[in-house]
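Our consortium's second objective concerns turning raw sequence data into structural hypotheses that experimental partners can test. To show how far this objective has progressed, the report includes one record in full. It was chosen at random from the queue rather than selected for favorable results. The single chain below, 593 residues long, was entered without modification.
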Amino acid sequence: MEQLVAFSIGPVQSFIASARKTTDLWSGSYILSELTQKAMTLMEEIFGAESVEWIQPQPMKAAVLENREVASFPNRFICIVSSPLEETKEKLHRVESGLTEYLAEVARASVGLLFAGKVLPASVWEQVEEQVSDFLEIFWAFVPFENRGAFHEKRLEVESMLASVKNNRPISFKQQHGLVCTVCKQREALSAESPTAEMSQGELKADLRKLWGNIQNDVSRSQEGEHLCAVCSTKRMRRKALQFEPFPSVTAFTMAKIKPEQLDEGGNPIGMTASGDQERYYAVVMFDGDDMGKWVSGAKSPTKKATIEGNKAITERLSKFSAAGIAQAKGKKNMKVIYSGGDDVLAIGSILNVMRFVEEVREMFSDPENGLDKDATGSCGIIIAPEKAPLQQVISYGRKAEALAKGYENAATGAAKDAFTLHFLRGSGQQRIVTLPFSARMPNQAPAWFNLPDKKLISWILGLADVWQELGLSPNFIYHFEDVFKHVAMEWNFKQSKNKTTQSVNEGKMPFQNGAEIEMIRSELYRLIGNATAKSDPETKGKIREFADQLSSLYFIHQGDFLSYTQLLEMIRYFSKLAPAEEVLENVQTSYV
């Protein structure tokens, strides 16, 4: 008798985001991928390899083995097993127990490596066992699968059952008396003695120093004052346990006006401090396929139903996309792919490299040869952050940026999703956020000078940054532009709010949807750009006119509010200053992929 099984492993987002270092971020994705692989191996060992038919994902392929430093397995799988009903339940419990024990083994090895050379008291190992034993959130469901032609209905049923199990998950509370982990801030940090309620704050701190003092940083990769729980210790040491090269820090990806003599042999800046525009920034991108539920459910297929063969084909195509994305990253220096599995990609690197990379990834996703389908689309969040920004905060902003891109809609062009959100987090704490489609489409009522249909927006923006640099535009251009239009924008917004019950006014809104308003922007851009450059020869004037047309076209496509458009101009200005610095690092930095 066959059963359709859905198996899920968590936690996901909180586990990945609990990161103080880039190696923690990498380990979160990698360990989840390892656990999925281990669960699939246990399924074949316990049920018998010949009794398991994989639907999503497929077992490890050669492409994965070649890129084993990149996590590539999702946190769930779907398969068909040949097993009686009660026996299936018992065997799935064994898979669950085996997976928990596997993580415990990994944790014990990691903690032992972290405190290499120290004899740890039994209380430390007790803390490790206790914290790891109930960490995993493993959920599974299965339904009898007698008619293979009813795969669509049965998949919906088993997914619904799995969702119900997750919604009714048991909640356990454990009393903790010790000081919390400095990374996750959820579990107690490992300590020399088991903390008790009677211990004072001073005693708890002394207990931590007793265990965590004098740890060799080159082994533990820990910072002074850090004390970790068993789970975060496992993440911190996983890369070293697997004998991989150290994961580069954000410093290796940051950009400033760096000269070759300011870089060490590995391409890392030597003893640099920066502020303002000299602040060192890097980028993180989170890419995700759009409407994947519809693709998997068969809603995007001619039959509008999911089939076993169709789901397997989707898995195979997504595996090719994942491998192609990693291969594409190998050709880029100064960036690293952390996760590339299914329709998801997580990467970190220098700003321009990440932006070029994600545009290539989006193009590959709809490539019939290396992607999902010619009609498939994807959206992403790109967070640009200063070197000193907390990594957990950066990841949180990245997820929000991805969600903004998923919610993108443009009434003028009919575009939905298939977008990217740029979130620029300045060192001062100011934020710049703008969402744009990956490709520019010709609006229904575009002006005659609008001649940029089907243009790649990221390449377009970087091209505008090059022109900005070539014209030598003063940054005052943006402030003058804002000063000219902000009063008009506020007046428009005030009129719009008259008929509303709320008295709040959303400053900065300015749609400019008709031709006269767009022409007003275009004329003023031409005037201000001319005033912002010291060049006045005929060739430069021609470039200014073209540049004004392109910025006006960008606003027409943008269709956002006035504030976000000026923020986009600020980003273009910043990108215009990056190219020389990144060229220096391109010639020095070694590839990290």
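The partners drew two points from this record. The domain at 276-588 is CATH 3.30.70.270 (Alpha-Beta Plaits). Confidence is low (pLDDT under 50) at residues 272-277, 499-511, 587-593. Both points have been shared with the crystallography group to help prioritize constructs.
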